[in-house]
Fold this protein.
Amino acid sequence: MKKSSNLLYDYKQVTFPLPETNLCWPLYDKGLENLGRGGRPVSLPMPKTGEDHLLARVDAVGLCFSDCKLIKQGPAHPRISGRNLKEKPVIPGHEASLTVVKVGAKLKDRFRVGERYLIQADVFYQGRSMAFGYVLPGALQQYVAIGREILEGDEGCYLLPVKKTDGYAEVALSEPWACVNASYRIARRQGLKPMGTSWFIITGEENSGGYTLAGAFLPEGGPEKIIISGKKERLLDLDQEVSGRKVVAEMGKAGEISRRHTGSRGFDDLVFFGVPSPKQLEEAAAVLAPGGILAVLGKTPVKEKISIDIGRIHYDRHHYTGTDTMNLADAYRPSRSMELKSAGRTWLIGAGGPMGQMHTQKAVESRNGPSLILATDLDDNRLHELKRRFAPAARQRQARLVTLNPSGLSSQAFTRKIKETTGGELFDDILVLAPVPALVEEGAEHLGHNGVLNIFAGLPRGVKAKLDISGVYLAGRRWTGSTGSSLSDLKYTLAETQQGLLTPNHSVAAVGGLAAAAEGLRAVQEGRFPGKIVIWPQFLSLPLTSLPELFRHLPNVAAELSPDGFWTKGAEEELIRSQLAVEKEGRS
């Protein structure tokens, strides 16, 4: 066969002439009805590129619930707040696999036509957030211009090269998988923030002093300013340790103290020496800065549960910690990493959705993963699919994957089922994957000694839950959360995929062409599929099709699925080859 007659080869080598127009899905206002025109993609001129730009072909893009949030909120979305979408529409899509099709004159020493890349969505340029698929045009289009913001970002180039042998779908899905990995790669500070602002609140309810900061200062230095509230005579040996620093004694309301000393940005470290009252805790937590740590040193339980902004734990990466010793450093020293505890017990709450399926896959397939994975969801079909997909891998690792639907069970009956599953033991790791405050509260009740409560679901800031903080300092429990991923997380995830340690293709649940993107986003909103939807922007006639339906509509592609029905590179290549033939026939 001549290379020129091999459509797949020509596609990969970028030998096709570029079109004069670019089909895309601009968002002109909030609501899915304002995506594109009349429920169809819009034909626009090809993106303009200069001598310091690349033009990239979008080969595959995963649909994300974050895209749905953007579409639902429109100009009210925090990443594009106030933007006039009618005049300057957004093109969503941030989970993308790209191929370079045109290189500006100034970039010819760095890039070549045909090179393939994975893009990091969280782009920062000159200190500004320029997220791909939000501020910058995203991947729900056939071609995208790549400019200085991405190529010369604050962290370097936000394009990661991929191998020609890497699959398009698995590359695109490296982005959501990086978010999954990021939630286990959280590396919290192990001391007070250098050059930060700390607030020490001395309650002294059960102790007359004796606290120490030995080991709480990092090698890079200690906080620039320390605010102290409470009876200073109870500090004892703290006096010497904080001497030489800017120390201010303050009394008053938390908001006022924060405004005076942080400009209302909040405190980087907020430490209670002694057990605080619920009111003290709630007021102080409200003035914790993004990335801040709240620590409690105490020996007796707090009298009642406290109302905590769990949305800020997720989006502002707050961390709650503590110790029952008199040494602050013990509160900052992690008893374990944020990785799922090896041979431990893990509970995934809301495991049936696309991200939940990914977390389940990670828990099941991790070489040193938990020995028990409890996956709960309100949808029996999702749980059935989850078990079908991942129970064999769990058995291969001699781990147990248990699925449970709490609907129809009383609270007492559900608790009994959980205890039957764990043998009466508590969990080492609990991940909340559904944005429901009651589920955070319920999960926290089942967290064991040194356990980690990871609030992965994107609850909005301001959403609160009633939690018992006593276990944080008396039993070493940790409350944490994460959002998005870093360039480092993306590199880590891509390396895992290329080394065969991770199979993002197992996350694919449905495929579709560019015209099917709006229906795909509606399906994401409705939770129609148990995994990820991958859109192929270069193909228009491909309807939204679940993998089981491929046998009926595209039997040649279905024949290349794995024996367990998973997406494969073989299925991908057959899809591209057959769709190229369809598109070619349509043009002739």
Remarks:
- Residues 257 and 391 are 53 Å apart (CA to CA).
- The mean pLDDT is 91.
